[in-house]
From TrEMBL:
Pfam families: HTH_18
Source organism of this protein record: Novosphingobium beihaiensis
Taxonomic lineage: Bacteria, Pseudomonadati, Pseudomonadota, Alphaproteobacteria, Sphingomonadales
Stated name of the protein: AraC family transcriptional regulator
InterPro entries: Homeodomain-like_sf, HTH_AraC, HTH_AraC-typ_CS, Tscrpt_reg_AraC-type_HTH
Keyword hit for Transcription regulation: yes
Assigned keywords, A-Z: DNA-binding, Transcription, Transcription regulation
Residues annotated as domain HTH araC/xylS-type: 217-318
Keyword Transcription regulation: yes
Domain of life: Bacteria
């Protein structure tokens, strides 16, 4: 359910600096906040929390101002990224790199560790409205690797951005029907979509894809689709993709791997992920082995231990222990696992 973070009108708008972070200063980061006096002083901010992430809808009939200075950063070094979806009015943003204005339909990211000034301007009819998401920057980095210290502006015209906005709005509007895990999944999916849109927008126009590149994509897709089939072979892939076995070998050499290396790598990687995320009461190690295309659990166990240094049962136990430890410790980084990353191509067959 949503909660009111703050609400200001003619009676209390002068107290906004002390109240805009909510009770016990549980939201936002430090800065100077003020409201322009006008005939209509209705300002309201509502919040929905999903773990450490807040989805906030802010509506105002008056112009709002927020300033984050270097002094505020020294006093409060909380590193947050704010994702803004502008609905009505304008959001003028200024920092050391210049001035920009976001209009309805625009998307903005700001970061608390760089000084900036924001002016939320009403449009006269619908006032000002934004949906914004506060997320610890170390969490957002898993989805957006670009440096956002000076901010980011882009229009919400890409399909990914529109879907992301709908997902976040849906989580905000949920009346309690969604479980916590489902809400987290939807928020994470929205972040992933935004990350894809940001990355693709910033990249240069890609070079024209060659026929070999397109064929390789088809091969990799076919292998992934049929990974669980223990009869998967070069002949099967070649026939399914309409190419010769020799040309298939050529395509895989472009990826600097062989058919056997690629298939075993993917099967073990999927099994490793499955073991880490599943409960032994729901699915057995044998079922996982067969599910990724191994002909026998014994063969799966030998291959898994050769690559990762522990058999599947030991690895699953280690994952369960780490998860239990993480649940019992608040605000503590999860310890690194003792299992190595996937080996380079060629090691699997040694």
């Amino acid at each position: 359910m949503t909660e009111t973070l703050f609400s200001f009108d003619k009676r209390n708008y002068r107290d906004c600096q002390q109240m805009f972070r909510g009770t016990r200063d549980q939201e936002y980061y430090r800065g100077d906040f003020w409201i322009e006096e006008s005939s209509n002083m209705d300002v309201r901010s509502e919040r929905k929390t999903v773990g450490p992430i807040s989805i906030i809808r802010q509506r105002s009939a008056a112009n709002l101002f927020f300033r984050r200075s270097r002094q505020h950063i020294r006093e409060d070094a909380t590193d947050l990224s704010i994702l803004w979806f502008v609905k009505h009015g304008e959001m003028a943003f200024s920092n050391q790199c210049g001035n920009k204005v976001a209009k309805p339909g625009d998307f903005v990211i700001t970061r608390s560790m760089s000084p900036f000034f924001i002016e939320c301007r009403t449009d006269g009819d619908n006032g000002h409205e934004v949906l914004h998401v506060t997320v610890p920057t170390h969490i957002l980095r898993a989805y957006i690797q670009q440096d956002l210290s000076t901010g980011l502006f882009m229009p919400v015209e890409r399909a990914e951005m529109a879907v992301a906005e709908n997902l976040l709005t849906g989580v905000f509007d949920d009346d309690g029907a969604l479980g916590e895990d489902s809400a987290r999944l939807l928020v994470e999916t929205a972040f992933a979509l935004i990350g894809n849109a940001v990355r693709e927008t910033e990249e240069l126009q890609p070079a024209r894809q060659s026929i070999a590149d397109r064929r390789l994509e088809e091969v990799l897709r076919f292998i992934e689709v049929h990974l669980s089939d223990p009869q998967l072979s070069t002949a099967m892939v070649a026939k399914g993709c309409g190419i010769s076995p020799r040309y298939l070998s050529f395509l895989l050499r472009l990826r600097e791997t062989s058919f056997s290396e690629l298939v075993w790598e993917q099967r073990l990687a999927k099994a490793k992920e499955w073991l880490a995320s599943s409960d032994p009461r729901d699915i057995s190690i044998s079922e996982i082995a067969y599910g990724v295309g191994f002909k026998s659990p014994a063969h799966f166990s030998r291959m898994f231990k050769r690559v990762f240094g522990a058999n599947p049962r030991e690895y699953r136990g280690e994952c369960s222990a780490r998860e239990a430890e993480a649940e019992g410790v608040t605000m503590q980084m999860e310890p690194a696992g003792r299992f190595p990353e996937f080996p380079a191509a060629g090691q699997l067959l040694q």
